[in-house]
Amino acid sequence: MLINKIFGTVGARLLSAILSFTVLIVSTHSFGADGYGVITMIILSIMFIGMFNDLMGGGALVYLIPRNKLSELLSISYTWSFFTALAGSIIAYFFDKELVGPYALHVFFLAVLHNWFTINQKVLLGKERIGIFNILIVIQLFILLSSLFLFVNLMPGNDPILYIYALYFSYGLAFLISFSFVFGYLKSENNKILIRKEVVKRVISLGFYTQIANLTQFFNYRLTYYFIQTFWISSGGSAAPLGVYGSTNKIVEGNWLVSKSLSLVQYSVLANREGEDYAQNLTLSFLKLSFFVTFLITLVLVILPGTFYEWLFGGQEFQKIPQLILLLSPGILAVSLNNSISHYFAGKGLQRINAIGSLLGFSGTVIAGLLLVPVWGLTGAAITSSIAHVLGTGFMIYIFIRKTQIKTSDFCLKRTDLNLVKKILANRKNKNS
Question: 108 in helix, strand or coil?
């Protein structure tokens, strides 16, 4: 059963990455770099609101659902998400009147739908409906792609509002479909809704520290967007730099699919096996393979000519993507290492080390971003991202080496590493058959 969940999740991630990348291509061709820059900031606002929503509607729900009445938890989470969306959209309006301001009301409604959808997903995770959870992710992206394709072909113009309409369809239908599964659990409960103070406190206490770490990591990935907007987009100016940078990061995030999938398998094995030596050897093997595969993919992405990206995304502005990926490559490779090491520390109950690494990366983002982005624009943003990821991952590698007493030479990829990974995957396949 466990391996079905693992490979089901990996398959869902792969399909989701393909759908997401297709949405990107349709968007850049339909709206151009300028329009996609506006869309990027709208989505960023929704995701930012979602981070605060997860304080009372995130991972803590997965733990609490088996231990509390679902109706009570949903009442707390739905109510909290409504007010976070309201506050977040007001902040977005005043903070970014130029790009997001005209769409602030849409940001509010979309954030509510997105938050409620993610809450329903957490409920399904808490009920161990992993398959449904994975299917819903794919469904949401498929609806987004289908409705976007329909709107851009049937309605004239290239206003980003067409993308917003597609988001309404995808978030709205995904929420309704997910709620149809959640409703089945609600029917089996007493319909009387009672919100107890102790349950609210429990939700907050479980969600607070996790979300502080997640929020820090969110800024590590996204704060450079705000620097670009602040220092390089004048009042009434084109949002094309954000469109180019956002497209580049979409490609980069797709590159991390392999390392994230490998680290997921690694974590599942560590969770079911004991022994420090085995944990170290397994982590090293997955870490080295992840780095090697990520390096090869990054090399291909850098070698591809700028004209290819111009053709792929439909604009001359996108010719800069190979240079940006080259500058981002140290950070890309650092994250491929981080995915394995962070799972090792999480499996040992040392989340504090992961949190410190995120905070170091965040510090690098702030300092380097303020120094480099005003001077070098997209180039400075890419360098800033690499500095942040290398700084955080470097700290975690240092702690990993100090705790495990391994040698620097152990980081070289060997045939034994490939054999170990191959053996683990073969064993998983046999158990599944």
Answer: helix
**Residue 150 shares a structural domain with residue 173:** yes
Residues of the chain by 3-state class (helix, strand, coil), percent to 5 = 90, 0, 10
Quick one: which of 193, 204, 191, 184 has its CA closest to 72? 193
Q: Based on the number of CB atoms within 10 Å of its own CB, is 349 exposed (0-12), middle (13-18) or buried (19 or more)?
A: exposed
pLDDT tens figures, 317-358: 999 999 999 999 999 999 988 888 887 887 676 767 888 888
Task: Show the tokens assigned to 16.
Answer: 């989701």
Helix spans in 348-404 (H): 351-376, 378-404
Answer yes or no: do 281 and 190 share one domain: no
Coil, helix or strand at residue 278 = helix
Say yes or no: 294 and 319 in one domain.
yes
The whole domain housing 54 covers 1-195
Residues in contact with 393: Cβ distance below 8 Å, sequence separation at least 6, in sequence order? 334, 335, 337, 338, 341, 357, 361
Domain boundary among 145, 171, 195: 195
Whether 147 and 287 share a structural domain: no
Residue 183 makes CB contacts below 8 A (sequence gap 6+) with none
Same domain, 318 and 179: no
Residue in 282, 261, 1 with CA at minimum distance from that of residue 131 = 1
Write phi, then psi, for 12 (nearest 5 degrees): -65, -40
Domain final residue pick, 168, 195, 222 = 195
What are the structure tokens assigned to 380, written together?
Answer: 């400075």
For the stretch 367-425, pLDDT in tens is 999 999 999 999 999 999 999 999 999 999 999 888 887 776 666 766 665 666 666 65
**In-domain check, residue 204:** no
| More confident of the two residues 190 and 304 | 304
The reply to whether 361 falls in a domain is: yes
- What's the pTM value of the predicted model, to 2 decimals? 0.84
In a domain, 106, yes or no: yes
Burial 41-75 (b: 16+ CB within 10 A, else e): bbbbbbebbbbbbbbbbbbbbbbbbeebbbbbbbe
Q: Tell me, yes or no, whether 201 lies in a domain.
A: no
For tokens 């520390």, what's the residue?
345
Q: What angle do CA 405, 407, 413 make, to 5 degrees?
A: 125
How many domains in the chain?
A: 2
Q: Which pair of tokens denotes residue 120? A: 């329903």
